[in-house]
Amino acid sequence: MVQLHADAQDLTLGLPAVAEEQERAARRSLRGQIVRLERELSDLVISSFPHGGVAAASTPEAGGPRLLGLGDLERIRDGLTARVSDARVALEARGAEHERSRQLLERMLLEPGRYKFVRIRNEDLGEPGCGVWQVRPRLGLIGMLMGWWQVKLSSGCPLAT
User: Fold this and answer.
1) pTM for the full model?
2) Hey, which residues does 150 pair with through a beta bridge?
């Protein structure tokens, strides 16, 4: 009977150890997910950098150093998931806008007479520099009256004064 009581005591001591091990595994899993999401968010920010970046500011945590509980880790993970999703949406929208501008430029190059005085900046195309594509009349007023239109790319950024 004494032996049976000792076994029951070992079983009750084993339950908290199992729960503690499960919590450690859950923390490890959440920390791994947070690391993956932070890496993904930083990759998105870096890939968008030359074109203005994406809004991915971090929110400061209250308090000093401490051991985060499961609820805190889940809140951080969920916040990172939302920020990654927002960054993806912003980059997809920017990519779609660049594609629309490229298609407009192609149409301008094919039929400049249909797009009189239309301007597209290199920034709208996702290209570096200050250049601007513009449909202008060839030979000024005479070209405008004769219907002679051309697409010109500006020489770039204006000189500093």
Assistant:
1) 0.66
2) 136
